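## retry 2 of 3
previous attempt timed out at serialization; input unchanged, resubmitting
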Amino acid sequence: MTSLVHLGRMFYLVNPNATTFQDPKDVPKYVNEAASTFVLFLLLELALRLWQGKPARLNDAFTSLGLGIMHEATLFASETALLVGYEWLYQYRLFDLAWDSSVSWWGAFLMVDFIYYWVHRANHEINLLWAAHQVHHSSEDYTLPTGLRLSMFQRLTYFGFYQPLALLGLPITSVMVHLGLNYLFQFWVHNEAVRKMGPLEWVFNTPSHHRVHHGANKWCLDKNYGSLLIVWDRIFGTFQEEKEDEVIVYGLVEQPQSLNAVWHELFYLEKIYEKARSMSSWGDSLRAVFYGPGWVPGAPRLGDLDSFPDVKAPRVKYDPQMPAWFMLYTALHFTLAFGAQQILLVHLKVSPWYTAVLFLAFIFLTMGVLGSMFDGFRWAPLLEAARCAAFLLYARATPITSAPPVDSALVLCFSMSAVFWTVMSLRALRAPLKIVKED
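## retry succeeded, writing output
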């Protein structure tokens, strides 16, 4: 029964009475509870693609999963910023809505989705916000892992958008519930298997609509911002139907050539800095930060669409090939990083702040170093050996889990990894490591 409840949440099929809470502490962590459902969907999609003879680019999927893990690992900080000040504003509410009324539930359902449209649109139209959101668009595949590809800064870009709902008298718990359910709904629309959905396409966001949103083709840019409801795009002029006669190219217009999740988080901030610095006036420097990503001096606020490159299929994807053993190694250590993220949630409640910092550092290093491996960075083996050695130093004095046999297995795993990558790094010092195969 619990599995069916989790599955229903993925499609927003929930009972309002079962998703109504008085205390914010009682609102479930919907994303954490859906972890097993995410895994099931990912495996089903992988099996379907293999059965259909379609390529399954695990390297790109690992990058998406790494970004998703970092997003969830930092949620304790970004989630607080999302609704900070909400309770204070609630004192000045215009309407007094009961926390358990249907008006509160349905009002939050509608308004959270409406606000998300404008949040999403702002993320595309303000360059500084795009620095976080471009991470989600950086996958050259349109598969379910793309739905997990979110920047750790993403929720910070929502600050100030949802707070005004407090003035309408919507209880904070109602807003929290619908933010979580909105997130879950957006996961499954990232697929190519589901084509058209008939009359539902008029009202709801569907995989077809969202495929357009992820396209780098000129006709796809800045379209279909809706989360659950596509009617907002139809009302505000940003709707675009999927074209049957043109293949969508997924990714960014200027596609970064990297599979390093940490690099994806940060590289665009440097681009904004360089663009602002290159301007001849303070006004243009500010416009470089707060106007659209495509803006240049003399152009409209969002840039001149006619001057944008018209991306068309086929476009060669960045696809470094790795040995099968390395893919298994990556899968193992990404799983351990996910476990570290889950342990982190527990440590946040009972441990000193520096414990959280150590766990976050471990997660970031895992994603950054293994991503450097995919990119063929010469010093990556040495960094991986150092990462494994650092884990062993920590584990030597501090239990990782509450199960000693598990800790022993982890020590053995990281010891073998440290020795292996030390040997590989010594070889790399003499000659570049040929871990990346050219097609």
